[in-house]
Known about the structure:
Layout: H1 2-17, H2 26-38, E1 43-47, H3 53-61, E2 67-72, H4 75-87, E3 94-98, H5 101-111, E4 118-123, H6 130-140, E5 141-150, H7 168-186, E6 190-195, E7 201-206
Parallel strand pairs: 1-2, 1-4, 2-3, 4-5
Antiparallel strand pairs: 5-7, 6-7
Amino acid sequence: MICCIFYIYLLYCILYVFRNIMTTSADEGQFINMLLKLVNAKNTMEIGVFTGYSFLATALALPDDGKILAMDINRENYEVGLPIIEKAGVAHKIDFKEGPALPVLDQMIADGKYHGTFDFIFVDADKDNYINYHKRLIDLVKIGGLIGYDNTLWNGSVVAPADAPMRKYVRYYRDFVLELNKALAADPRIEICMLPVGDGITLCRRIN
């Protein structure tokens, strides 16, 4: 049943955008789903929702009282996938906020009560702000918790020569993704694992 929901939802997203550029891949969605079950995640966050395939994978993995704080600048895209999320019976787990994520994160940090409270955070949003997200999220994820950054292989461009042929949007964000990858590798507060799933996902486990 869950696999059927995954693939119906993925097809729905592909038909909506005509090509699967912004949607999380099916293998990555199932990987996230299994990972969250293994770590018994309950309180999660997602930055960059699009039509909601990745947080459907998350929601299906959480217990009935689990929660996802989901943020995106476009509610219209979120509402495209909402009927499927409701059909899966997990809409009650989702707290969707429309707008930029950074002000929300800043407020959460200022409040003080959210420090170290998230089991898992998934980021698939504006690549030029990945570093800014990391500076904030490291305080919000618990010790032993995970942050997942999507697209860290960025169409393979991160290992390609700088003068290699690339699509314009790939070239534009390439340096931001490279900057993130270098920063994560040098961050003593985390241990990392970059996996060639989808367009690359880097898992960061907070260790202190």
